[in-house]
Structure formats: C-alpha cells, structure tokens
Amino acid sequence: YVVLFVDYGNTGEVGYPDALPLPERFGTARSHAAHCGLYGVGPMSDAGWTMDEIGFFWTSSTTTTKPVDLEVVGVSGSRHEVRLTIDGVSVNDAMVTSGRARRTAASPERPPTQIAQSRLPDGTHTCTVVSVESPDQFYVITEGNKVVNELMEKLGHIAAAGRLAPFPPGRLTGGEYCLALFTDGNWYRAAIVDRIDDDQVTVEYIDFGNRLVVAPEKIRALPDEMRGYGRQAIPCALYGVDGLLGGRSWSPEAGDYFRKRVLEQVCSVQRMADGPGNDLVELKSTGGAGECFNLMMVEGGRAKSSSYLYAPRLLKAQLPIRCPPAQFSVLMTNVVDPSLMHGRTTFKQEIQKLMECIEQLSHDCSTIDFNPHYQPDHGWLVAALHPDENAWYRAEVLMVSADAVKVSLFDIGRLLDLPMTSIRPMISKQYLELPVQTFKLCLHGVQPADRRNWCKEEVDKLNELVMDKTLTANFIETIHNVHHVHLTNAENQTNIAEELSKFQKRQIPQITSPARPRPPSPATSLRGDARLRFPAAVPARPPSPAKPPHFGHPVRAPSPQQPQRSPGSASSENEKLKSEIIQLHLAMAEKDKAIEQRNEVIASQKIKIKSLQAFLHEGLKLAAESSD
After folding, report:
1. What is the pLDDT of residues 188-210, one digit of tens each?
2. CB–CB of 377/364 below 8 Å?
3. Buried/exposed code over 55-93 (b: 16+ C-beta within 10 A; e: otherwise)
4. φ and ψ at 203, to 5 degrees?
5. What is the three-class DSSP state of 479?
6. Helix (H, G, I), strand (E, B) or coil at 320
7. What pLDDT shows up at residue 60?
8. CA–centroid distance for 505 within its chain
9. Which three-class secondary structure string do you get for 96-124?
10. 617-625, Cβ contacts within 8 angstroms, sequence gap of 24 or more
C-alpha cells in the first residue's frame, strides 16, 4: 500500500501485515499536519516542479535550525497558502530571485470555506441508499428531502442562463468545491478529491456520495449562492459488523453483495452511534419481513459480528463431519473411562489450523465487551475462555444457570464450568469451517472386571497409560458417534488393552466393588415394601398305606409322591430372575440410545432443510432482481 501519514504529511509504502485498522477512538481526532503551499509563486514550467526546484526548497526550509515564521494568507481548498520566512528571509522571494519559481497572480485572500456535512438525527428514518462503496462507506438521503430538488432547480436555471463560470486552473486541487458535469448531462455540486494528471480529475458529488473521474473542461466554479447548503448525502457505515479481512476491510465479494442488495433501495435506517466522519447505523429493508442487513451479512458468512446484536446462532451440528482414517496418531486429552476418551490428531496441518482458529477467536473476543443481556442456550456454539491458558476456544453449551454455564471445549476434549463473563458469542460463520479437532474413542477389546462398571482403579490405570501421550490408533468401527479403536503407545509399542487386562488380573480381584442397588421387581412395585418371595422346598410325603379292598368300590391307587426340591433350587431361580431383569434394563438402555441417536439425525436434517430453504429463497430473490 501507498499511505499518507496524516500527522506528518509524508507518504510511504507499507506491506499488508503492517497496515492495521484504525481504532474508532482515533478516527475523530484531527490530523496534526497542515497542508500548505507557498503563496504567490508557481513552477517555472507548466509541466510542474522540477527536481532542482524541489531540492532548493527542501534545503532552504527543512534543513535549517533557525526560527521559521509561517503566515497564512488564504486557503485554497484544503491547502493553506502561506508566506514562509526563515531568520528574516522570505522563502517565497528566494525561490523567485534564484530562478526556481515565478510570480503568479495573487491568490484571493479569503477565509476557509467549508460546506457542512449533514448527519442523521437520533431515531429511525426512512432513507434511500444513493451510493455504495462498501458496507463501511455508503450514503443515504432522507425521504422527503426537498433541498436536493431545490438545488437541482437552481442549477438548471444557472446553466440555462449561461452563468457557469470557468474554474481557475491553478486551483484544481483536493478539497476545492465546484460544479461537475455528470454522465446524464446535468451539473451537480462536487468536491475535487484528487488531480490525477492534466487530463483527469477525481470529483465527489457531495449531494449523492458517488465519485467520478472527469476532464478539467467538465468542471465549473461553484456559485457563492450554492455554498450555503450542507452536503445532502449522509455518510453511513453498518453498525456492529466487521469485514472478514480484518477490522473495517471488506472482501470484493462482500462489497458486491451488499451493493446489489441496498443500492437505490428505500430502507429503514436507525442511527446507533457516531463513527469516524459518518453515522454507524442499523439498516433494514422496508418490504417483506424487514430483513436486517447487518445480521444478513454475518449469517451469510460475509462479515463477522462485533456486537452481541448480530451474533449468529450457530450449532455444533453445523460443523463438518470428519471420519477417522484406518490408522492415525492421536494425543489423548481427556479420559472418562475406557468406553469414552477424547483424543486430538497430531497432524501438523490440523494443529496449525487449530492454532490459527484459537488466535483469531482470541483476537475477536478481545474486541467484544461482556454483555449481561447475552444468554446462550443449550446446544449453541460459543467462545469460551480457558481459565488456565487465557485463550478462547470454540465450545458447545451443555447447561445454563443464572450466572454460570457448563461447556464442552470439543477441540481439546474438556468439560468446564465457567462464569458467564467468560462466554462470548461466536461472531462469524467462518468458525464452522474447521471440523471438531478431537475424536470420541472407545478402547476395543476390554471390559470391566465385574462386567458391569469401570472402577476407579481401572480408570486411574488407563489415565496413567494414555493421558497426554501420543498413541497409534487402529480404527475398528463406529457406534453412536464413538470410534472403537486399538491403541498402541507410539514410543514403546505397548498395547494399551493388554496392559489394562494385565492390571485387572493382578489387582482387581482384591478390589471389593460396592454392590449396585437391585432394580425393583414387578412384585415389589405391587406390594409396596413386601419383598419378592419364592416357594420354599416342600418335604416329601410318605406313601399312604394300602387299605383293604371294600366290596362295591374300586381300589384307589397309592397317591404319587410330590417331587422333592433341592435346597438350592430357590436361590438359582432367584438368580435367573435377577439376570432377566438386568438384561431387560440393558435392552431398554440400548433402545433409549437408539432413540436419542435418531433424534440427533432428525435435528441435523431439519437444520439442513432450513439452510436449503433459505438458500433457495435467496436464489429466487436474486433471480427476480436480475430479471427486473
């Protein structure tokens, strides 16, 4: 970039990394360097100042240590015409007597004349967007503005009467006001921005905000009666949003999109704050649902929010899905038990992307102050401040209370309880581009020693084997978004499952696990506190003695003996019933997991359908606009 250092007056070339956005608090401060020119002198040639003439002036005025007196004689645009005296010697006269300048007609000694800039009053107004450079620089005219029509009528009369005076050639400099011919053949009030060369001058039409390069012959002097009206085009910038290129820098695509949506449209404009030379506004369409263009730029991925008002509602389901390769290197960052661990890939490219994401997110969050009215909901993606690392991470909200929030830092596999002051909104959809950087892993081929729950000693041993260590993972299968893997220590080639099994054989038999509460049986639920009872063993009945036969009646056969039950039969039936109940509970748990998984898939599909509907709706709008 070629830049002008406004507080010193010199120009220089700087690289892209060395050009940073100017903080808003400095934008309203006046520059400390004044633009000056020697009064009453000009170059010897119409081609401009030669290097010899410039060198003489440089030596005379900038290398001296003697007192310098500066007398402002007049103002020509933004330039002050001055008499420069050094130690009693006039530099203006020295330039002429040395043959390095010529006398010119005396510039009119007049006070500085500026045309006031109109501003938006507080409140909401209906305006027409008349010119757009970017979302950070566009111009509006309030509805019902009668001054513009009055100006056009007066200029038409002046042109028809032949009262357009020529513009002094020596004053074609930046800041001068004039009349400039537009492409429609009409004359409009304008300000000279810059003189490119002898044949091209950049002007800004001050009542409409647009700029144009015109020839000097298409410029006329501005009549004095036209100087009393303020600039009718009001400069504005979108409030609460920043460009993706950093600060107030916008990509060409974002600028084109914004221009097509708002140029020459009637909009609702609410002034939110003062900007550096403009009004920071919220811009909404006046038709349909009253779309907010500030929020639309953020949700469309063309801007990032610098205000809680326009923070997009992002969900973890919107993140890209990443499947693990057949074999990969992983750094274990969190262990719940062998059935659920979090591991981060160790690919350099992935680590670099994560570091860039954390750095950019930390920078963005440093520009957003805490807002007590911001209340994230369950499932939202937010930025969370890690208390130990003083860095901001992508996080998913798991639970919200009055002044605290439980979040999952899914890129490093951590669960944290944080105060609400450590939470900021995710201000841009660009943070959805990076997939989740950790995998949910399950150690394949192991089970608890009691075949029910992992005890503390087993979990502690697993932490010792894998935590903060680089492991080689061999992918087996995925069940409920958890990847079952074989794990091997990359340093000593130790098989983690085998080491854990050896520990179980050595230590777990001596560990007494607390008995789990037995689930209530149907019989218990029916009879209150009564316990389920089983029939006791019945002793064998002795055979009945045979009776002597009785005439006229058949002889009865001896009664068969009731089968004798062993003393352990009741306990075995009890164990069988207990096993059936446990299997029933496990089946119900699996069914609940399947239902939960299905609900997650349905929710994800709904989000995709809504995104597709919004995309189609926007496409139809653009098609209708292009056909118009």
Report:
1. 999 988 888 878 889 999 999 99
2. no
3. ebbeebeeeeeeeeeeeebbbbbebbbbbbbeeeebbbb
4. -125, 155
5. strand
6. coil
7. 78
8. 52
9. HHCCCCEECCCCCCCCCCCCCECCCCCCE
10. 622/260, 625/260
Distances (CA, A) of 238 to 99, 100, 248, 349: 54, 50, 10, 36
Q: How many CB atoms lie within 10 A of CB 324?
A: 17
Structure tokens at 284: 């909404």
Residue with the two structure tokens 């002036």: 57
Q: Give the chain's end-to-end CA distance (angstroms, integer).
A: 39
Residue 172: φ, ψ to 5°: -80, 65
pLDDT in tens, 544-555: 444 444 434 444
Tokens of 434: 């990076």
Helix, strand, coil abundance in the chain, percent, nearest 5: 30, 30, 40
β-partners of residue 293 are none
CA nearest 325: which of 304, 305, 290, 350?
350
* Phi, psi at 534, each rounded to 5°: -115, 150
Q: HSE, CB side, 13 Å, CA atoms: give it for residue 527.
A: 8
The full length of the chain comes to 628
Separation CA 357–CA 411 (nearest Å): 11
Task: Specify the pTM.
Answer: 0.47
State the SS3 of 362-422.
Answer: HHHHHCCCCCCCCCCCCCEEEEEEECCCCEEEEEEEEEECCCEEEEEECCCCEEEEEEHHH
Q: Which whole-number Å values give the CA distances from 370 to 306, 366, 429, in the listed order?
A: 12, 10, 20
The CA-based dihedral angle spanning residues 211, 213, 217, 221, taken in that order and rounded to the nearest 10 degrees: 30
3 state SS of 452 = coil
Q: How far apart are CA 24 and CA 104, in angstroms?
A: 42
Structure tokens, 240: 């609460």
The answer to whether 524 and 470 are in contact (CB under 8 A) is no
Radius of gyration of the chain (CA): 42
CB of 249 closer than 8 Å to CB of 21 = yes
Residue showing tokens 């009349």: 179
pLDDT over threshold 50, residue 593:
yes
Strand partners of residue 383: 394, 424
Could you give the CA distance from residue 521 to residue 578 in angstroms, rounded to a whole number?
A: 9
- Token pair of 340, please? 């659920």
What is the reported pLDDT for 534?
39
247 pLDDT band, cuts 50/70/90, is low
Looking at 444-526, which runs of residues are DSSP E strands?
A: 470-479, 482-489
Question: Is residue 65 helix, strand or coil?
Answer: coil
Tokens of 312: 């997009």
Residue 495: exposed, middle, or buried by beta-carbon count in 10 A (0-12, 13-18, 19+)?
Answer: middle
Tokens, residue 383: 């930025």
SS3 209: coil
SS3 letters across 8-62:
CCCEEECCHHHCCCCCHHHHCCCCCCCCEEECCEECCCCCCCCHHHHHHHHHHHH
Q: How many Å apart are CA 72 and CA 80, to the nearest integer? A: 6
**What is the Cβ-side half-sphere exposure of residue 326, based on CA atoms within 13 angstroms?**
0
Q: Which two tokens stand for residue 256?
A: 């084109």
Residue whose pair of structure tokens reads 């062998």 in the numeric block: 338
Rounded Cα distance between 395 and 628, Å, is 44
**Separation CA 381–CA 22 (nearest Å):** 30
Per-residue b or e along 429-464, where b marks 16 or more CB atoms closer than 10 Å to that residue's CB: bbbbebebbbbbbbbbbbebbeeeebbebbeebbee
pLDDT band at 523 (very low <50, low <70, confident <90, very high): very low
